[in-house]
Amino acid sequence: MTEGASAVDHADYAAMTDAAFRTMVRSWIEANYPADKRFIVSRVGMDVIGGWVRALGDRGWLCPSWPTEYGGMGLPIRKQIIMMEEMARHGCARYPDQAINHVGPLLIQFGTEAQKARHLPKIAKGREIWCQGYSEPGAGSDLAALQCKAVSDGDDFIVTGEKIWTTLATCADWIFALVRTDNSGKKQHGITMLLVDLASPGVTVRPIESFTGEVEFAQVIFDNVRVPKTNVVGQVDEGWALAKAVLGHERVIVGAPITSMMGLRQLESLAQALGAFADQSFADRYAELRLDVHDLTALFESFVRRIEEGEEIGPDVSLLKITATELQARISEEILSLAGDQARVAEPIQLPQMTVDPLAIYAAARVPTIYGGANEVQRNLIAKSVLKLPS
């Protein structure tokens, strides 16, 4: 990191012209982002990218969409997109962002003042990392079927059960978890949102290794874990509404265009190196993908504006999730096809400005079509809840 990278910039970003803001962001990223961590395909933990996360936090740039009073930048959507574009241009890796994208907005809207004071400043500085405790072995697409239970015991809950496919739990400090506090009514009732310190006695985090050898996911086991009732967000038994709010935000975040922007940059660099733009057929396909990225960006902006205006995000957000993840997949397929016999697992393609690993890009692009609710499930949601088609 360059000298002065930890200084917080108190400029009124919203008042800056877009061009001046872009120049500032680009210059700072160029000076501060580690060159050996550009265009990392997989999601990485704090052991790999922690220095960059903390540098963003020290500068006050870790939470672009948060209000300034909570340590954010208070950026309007257009400048948030500019930051995404510059992050994509420089191949900035995706860091653990559950706290920034989910926990922060959740606490800002529903948390107590004590919860906000305890967690938001640390999150905004990159000093507190969170993971999401939703899915269970018997509750994935049917999330309301969850059975991880929390039993009242004086001023505490005693939590027993497990969560599965928990993203980057191995580097997290806290988990925001949905727990079952009542089984007597409809399954959507009796669910509570609970904040759990992963250092609590009785918590076990077991890494899950993927077929690529990476450890992005984990199983989190709760064995009679004592959690203060002051860690409940919202009301006991009424956490389903909060869960849906977080899921709506999650599908907006999954729909962010930054991954497709980065993939398009990799495709462009590979095509230039191979002379592929001389092939009109490829040039046409590239142009179509580039226009698709512009369309995705416009769609993403529309949903973020709705969030900023306090509008509830409905089931139509599934359209954004489908559009983004399937565009990402198409870009990865074009990279793989263009690489041809150079697409070897052990030998990524070395380009002047970056390294491109076509098979890793292709494999990574499959994952987002499943998490956050598989795209097949999202299509069913659109059919039932948006188009009102019969079951």
Describe this structure as you would to a colleague.
- The longest helix has 29 residues, at 280-308.
- The radius of gyration is 21 Å and the shape is globular.
- Helix 4 (98-110) packs antiparallel against helix 5 (113-124).
- It is 44% helix and 14% strand.
- The chain has three domains: 13-95, no CATH class; 130-238, Butyryl-CoA Dehydrogenase, subunit A, domain 2 (Beta Barrel); 255-386, Butyryl-CoA Dehydrogenase, subunit A, domain 3.
- A four-stranded mixed β-sheet has the order 1-4-5-8, covered by helices on one side. A four-stranded antiparallel β-sheet has the order 2-3-7-6, with no helix packed on it.
- Strand 2 and strand 3 (156-163) form a beta hairpin.
- With 391 residues, the chain is α+β, with helices and mostly antiparallel strands.
Quickly name the level 1 CATH class of the largest domain. Mainly Alpha
State the end-to-end CA separation. 56 Å
Mean pLDDT across all amino acids: 90
Largest sheet: 4 strands, mixed
**Shape descriptor:** globular
Tell me the radius of gyration.
Answer: 21 Å
- How many structural domains does the protein architecture include? 3
Low-confidence stretches: 1-9
The number of distinct helices, counting runs of at least 4 residues, comes to 11
The CATH architecture of the largest domain: Up-down Bundle
Helices and strands, in order, run as HHHHHEEEEEEEEHHHHEEHH
The computed structural class is alpha+beta
Helix content: 40-55%
CATH superfamily label of the largest domain: Butyryl-CoA Dehydrogenase, subunit A, domain 3
CATH topology of the largest domain: Butyryl-CoA Dehydrogenase, subunit A, domain 3
Strand line-up of the largest beta sheet: 1-4-5-8
Total E-strand runs: 10
Report the β-strand fraction as a percent range. Answer: 5-15%
